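Protocol step 4 of 6: record predicted structures for both targets in the notebook before any analysis. Target 1:
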Amino acid sequence: MANSNKHKLETRLIHAGVEPDPTTGAIMTPIYQTSTYVQAAPGDHKGYEYARTQNPTRTALQNALASIENGQYGLCFGSGMAATDAVAKLLLPGDEVIVSNDLYGGTYRIFTKVFANYGIKFHFIPMDDAQNIRNYISDKTKMVWVETPTNPLLNVIDIEACAQISKEHNLLLVVDNTFASPYLQNPLDWGADIVLHSATKYLGGHSDVVHGALIMKDVALEERLRFIQNSCGAVPGPHDCWLVLRGIKTLHVRMQRHSENGKAIAEYLRAHPKVARVLWVGFEDHPNHEVARKQMRGYGGMISFVLKDDNIEAALAVLSKTQLFSLAESLGGVESLIGHPATMTHGSIPREERIKNGLSDSLIRLSVGIEDVNDLIEDLAQAIG
């Protein structure tokens, strides 16, 4: 169970799930680097028997994650994809899932190349109007899967509207909240059943851990997913859990700076004579901005843009010239990253699908870090020319 949610989020980010070590009084949760636990007698294991099943460091993190997402239960996994895999294992052959059509390439890959082989059907559809979901619901539909904001086009999807439709048809609503983080958005508050995070990103925040998480309110759902977590074994080690615990303590101050820097850089790029289009949730004319204003507390540091010279060579030239923006996969770290989704994070999606969904070969994605924003702008200025 999570700690009490009576305190403000900024306080819970520091204290939720954390208790002084009972042996030493250590204020930081220890790294319980053990594979098994001594039992006084068979079955007398004080809640801990084998580290795949439970670990005290992981327990502290799971409780903290549940609290900061306004849930009741948290479950941790060895990666965001392991968390995705666990949710997909709730499904049976013949089941169908409705999925937002702009999403992380790894999610598309596991759905189409792994779970589709087991007779599960996925409908990838635009969800800018949530009512479009109704057109794909059948008696075989069991789940709706949403990213918002989406990766990498920053599309905003109305979680509350998706939840209403899902509940009408007894469907599970899963929301990937990686781009927003719990500081900017809490999907459970808007009716989602499961919140998913690649904790590798903003939750860890320092590009030094690979981790995944699921948060929910329903005890029966938690029991099903905890059974999968334990049975399939894609669990994180205690040191990885400790790194995420450390990371979330500064999530609020980092997200504030990510958002401030993101706003400044989005405005700079929009005014640049060589930039044709800038995608950032905070622009008032961004599609579904009014939905973002309703369900988010800020707009973050994820930005995508396209040059007026709209070809892959021009985009790659920019990527080769940045000095502070490092060319790398991933996002959400304290350092700024620049990437080319078509060949990197979304390379597993067929080109015709990417183009149809609006992801061009020349799109550049930025994960804006917490460096001095003027230095970041100067770096982009010299790279774009």
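Target 2:
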Amino acid sequence: MHKKHWEDCLSIIKDNINSQSFTTWFKPIKSKSYKDMTLTLIIPNKFFYEWIEGHYLKLLNDTIITVLGEKGKIEYEVSNVTSKINEDNSNKLESVETSKQFFNNLNSNFKFKSFVSGKCNSVAKAAGKRISENPGSNPFNPLMVYGGVGLGKTHLIQSIGNKIINKSNSSVYYVTSEKFANQFIDSLKENKLKDLINFYVNIDCLIIDDIQFFKGKEKTQEVFFHIFNQLNLNNKQIILAADKSPVELDGLEKRLVSRFKSGLTVELEKPDYQTRLDILNYKIQNENLSINKEIVEYIAFQVDTNIRELEGVLVSLLAHSTITKEDINIELTKSIISKIVKDTNREIDIKYIQEIVSKYFHISIEEMKDKARRKEIVIARQVAMYFSKDFTNNSLKSIGFHFGGRDHSTVIHAVQSVNDMIDTDNFFKKSISEINKRILAG
């Protein structure tokens, strides 16, 4: 029975997402049992659960309603540790009399601990921590976080909410602007607008995501303006997130935008190379995974768009490795990146590698190319050839040509020599790792 239920779910899911996403994130999942309206699924690791819950929650909710009915639930089993996640499919506004338990509607995986910080987001994270210590009574009310897609806005604002809940009995409510707008429309149809307003003005900390979607919804903005003012007067914490800064938000009333700007506005920028590397290493360590250091550095260099795509590459690699039982190598990594990241034309050429290696060994590129046989020059030349083969698509003959017209057998010998020295000389191995970092860091 459980297999049939999950097959029915997969059939619906497959029709609603692209084939690559389905193969990567849903195909590896297996059903285990079905009891008391609860379907138990086995997932390869916690990463799968986090990704699916973060990106396909609505699709799962709708699917469960269709297959199991309104009372259907999902229970995930990950690495022999059972984590019960009840998908109660409730997207409707709860009544104002609901107990404080209701307000725990945040994704519990979004915490400050897992929000890796760097130059791109350190100010926002520090402000978030300050708010969570004293919500409502701080200089950062409201807090307005903005930035492009996949830079961690939702993670950060929900981390604040989770911290507040853990530290106090305060009521925290997270909602997207689209859901708020739908609640407003439903309240008008059911003649319950007063109840809607009552519900919101009694919240201790209101978190609104994607406020740019208030654009053009004049009546919704009017109601939200009233709620915002009431919460602000009562020293309740307000946290907002958008894809643009307040001054760039089109289609929003000036008085509303003015309120948004009255507290702290902070931008989440694209993560730099070191932050991207830290994020990957955190994920890998947290999930107790094993991926070659050079591959992790390659991912961090190539995927400079946003955190979501960075994690997407890592998840896809894990999924592929789980399905095929193959090791994660550089060829597979390049293939996955090309399918997920739109612009992967950040080619590292031989000239660039020669510049990095020559600086590291304190010799000139001309010396590297000539026929000098001094040991330090030979090693530098071999290292540059080694990285040229690893990072570029040039043929062995072409690589040899760029090093003073040497033939392909010289390149083969150079690569083998470097590999041998890596295996036998720890100091040399560290040097190779350092050069690798410099090449990737640009």
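Step 5 preliminary note on target 2. The radius of gyration is 27 Å. DSSP finds 20 helices and nine strands in the chain.
Proceed to step 6 after PI sign-off.
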